[in-house]
């Protein structure tokens, strides 16, 4: 049941937030509140992920207690549960975590999250879990900054041949939120159409001088079979542009401009101009890795309930709300 899977994934991300809040408020033993978030779903806490820069808990590995007993009675038409869920929290604006989290938020905006020690540690933990149990038994989940970590890790694992079931709640989109800022649909399309023309033109000009074009295109195509679950709220400027990104791509193919969009969708103007290429994502230059939001495919859930405040629109709690009102769209490249 996709609603149950979404609820479990989002609650395990909330568990990581609560683990860090327990640490900051010295809630130990019976006073700690985090364990309820995983015990309710029959998970155990297998490992706590700590950022060596500030000692904060940024993620956790949860193990499902009934994984093996489930497999014995498995039915062919139901999706199996995970053995491990690796979950990552977003920014906590409190004294003990704020400084480090905001620095990493800035790295998301500049598309250089993968050089951070937090991300390097996270990908090692993921690779180790996959090596032990195989990629089919591991889920990734994250919210906001944590969704950026999970998304980047998911891309790297997919390109290595190990796609993971991934739940990305309110992931940051490192570009201007046209979807939120511009009200007119015609104007939105006009702005994006112009952007696609410029991107395609610059990509052809830049990549005409390079010899790795095929390799970069192949890198984008390698991701096409991976379909992460993407959760966005149109009232949240941090993630709302994903709606426009996919909607625009469909529209370009509808009006016969598919060839232009095929080039534009896999490139970012900033990384093309800075020499990052935009499609490879393997450069070691500190800020020239591909933008996070260049995603070929996604199963997108859009919260169409009213979210009057930023806290509501960007919060993790909306995704397990039983009164949730959503729109579901599969985008496949």
From TrEMBL:
Pfam families: Lipase_3. Coiled coil: none annotated. Gene3D superfamilies: alpha/beta hydrolase. InterPro entries: AB_hydrolase_fold, Fungal_lipase-type. Residues 124-162 form the Fungal lipase-type domain. Transmembrane segments: none annotated. The keyword tRNA-binding does not apply. It comes from the Eukaryota. Keywords: Hydrolase. CDD domains: Lipase. This is GDSL esterase/lipase At4g10955-like.
